[in-house]
Structures are given as C-alpha cells and as structure tokens.
Specification:
Length: 239
C-alpha cells in the first residue's frame, strides 16, 4: 500500500473515432524507464482513451503525467484542471513538444496554466525520473525550488518561475527499456492500435516545421540493433 502510483496519459479524442490510432509509446518509454529505476516501489499505468482514464481516477494516483501535443492540449488541460479541482494533492506533470521556445513565452505558459505543476522540456525519461525521486524525498512539497535539469515550473506561493537548464541527451537509446518488452503495450496491441518504435532520435537538418529541427536534436542518437530486433519480434506476435 506504500507504493507510489503514477498514471501516464497520452490521451486522444474519440468522439469521431480515434484521432490517434498509435500505441502510447512516448509515455510508455518514460513509464518503462521510471519502472526500471524504481522497481517494486512504483506502480505505473498507461492510458490512451479518455473514458478508461476517467474510470481509473476513481482511485487517484500520486502523480499524473500527460503528453502535451498541439492536437490534444485542450483535452489534457481540461482533465488536469478537473483533477486539480477534485484531487488538489495529485501532482500534474506535462511534457512534450507543445511548449514555447522563447523565455518570456515559457514563463507566460507556466503562469497561465495553473493546472500544470511541472513541465518536462525536451527528453523526458531522465528528467521525469529525477523529478519523481525528488518529490518523494521531499514529501511532495511543491515549493522546494527543485533544481532539476529539464524541469520548468511556476511556484505560485512565491510567484516565481523556475526554468532549469536543459539536461544532456541520452547517448544510447538502449538505456531506455522497451515498453513492449515490459508488457506495457500489450493491451493496446490487443485492441488494434498501431505499433511504433523509435530506432533513433535527432536530425542534422533544421526544418522549422519539425520538433527535431531544434539545435538540441542536431546529433543523431541510436538504439541498439538488438533492442530494435527484439521489439519487432515482439510486435510481430500481434500481427
């Protein structure tokens, strides 16, 4: 009963059919990384459909982590607001590419979106795990001035924005355990969601329309061939 409970929500609209038909691989990687690091001390659950997520909130977690894209920002924001209203002690974390790059706009985003306790900038695996461990060590005090790389937030008690430096990238993506091989994607493969894998991160080009056109992603980081092979073989069982 002392386990830390974390919900990861990569929510999609469903009123006109599934708007995102891919498995929640992005949050799955963060969940897998956190689970591997924390072991039996943490219980993680991953959600894609809003109705399933609503039912799960009858038993609220300690932390909810939302993926934040331009196409689901309104959806996850309304969920976050509702969670904060009903369960004010639940820590809400956002992460994803739908976040300003300019300093003043970042501060404005953090100040306006009071439903967001913390925003993970750029790569999420290490930053989220470091945030979780710091929160648990400090008994979920949101006013500790956490100096965690890649974690931004606005302290509403002191009216102070904290925009910590961006952490170094993960050089070998094999450091991130596979959510497929840990069984975290099984229910979505069973349900007919489309599988995806990530063989590399980064791109040497600087296309303005692409999230990886940022200088931060200029160097390409790869996963091992063995991990890719194992994931493909695992997925093939469902095809």
């Amino acid at each position: 009963k002392n386990k830390l409970k974390i919900y990861f929500a990569d929510l999609t609209y469903v009123h006109q059919g599934l708007q995102s038909e891919i498995v929640p691989y992005s949050v799955g990687c963060i969940a897998a990384y956190t689970k591997e690091k924390m072991g039996q001390n943490v219980e993680v659950s991953i959600f894609k459909k809003p109705d399933t997520f609503v039912k799960a909130l009858d038993d609220p977690p300690h932390i909810v982590a939302f993926s934040n894209y331009v196409w689901n920002f309104s959806l996850v924001s309304e969920f976050a607001k509702a969670i904060k209203k009903v369960y004010p002690k639940v820590v809400v974390v956002f992460g994803g590419p739908n976040y300003p790059t300019e300093d003043s706009e970042q501060i404005d985003f953090l100040q306006k979106n009071s439903q967001v306790d913390f925003f993970i900038v750029k790569e999420g695996e290490r930053a989220f795990y470091n945030l979780v461990t710091s929160l648990t060590e400090n008994k979920f005090n949101l006013h500790m001035g956490y100096p965690i790389p890649s974690v931004h937030y606005f302290d509403r008690k002191t009216n102070t924005p904290f925009r910590n430096e961006i952490a170094d990238r993960i050089n070998d993506l094999s450091e991130i355990p596979s959510p497929y091989l840990m069984g975290m994607m099984d229910e979505y493969l069973d349900d007919g969601f489309m599988p995806i894998i990530q063989t590399n991160r980064g791109c040497p080009f600087a296309c303005t329309f692409c999230v990886e056109g940022d200088f931060y992603y200029q160097k390409i980081k790869r996963s091992s061939q063995e991990k890719v092979k194992d994931e493909l073989e695992y997925i093939a069982k469902y095809l």
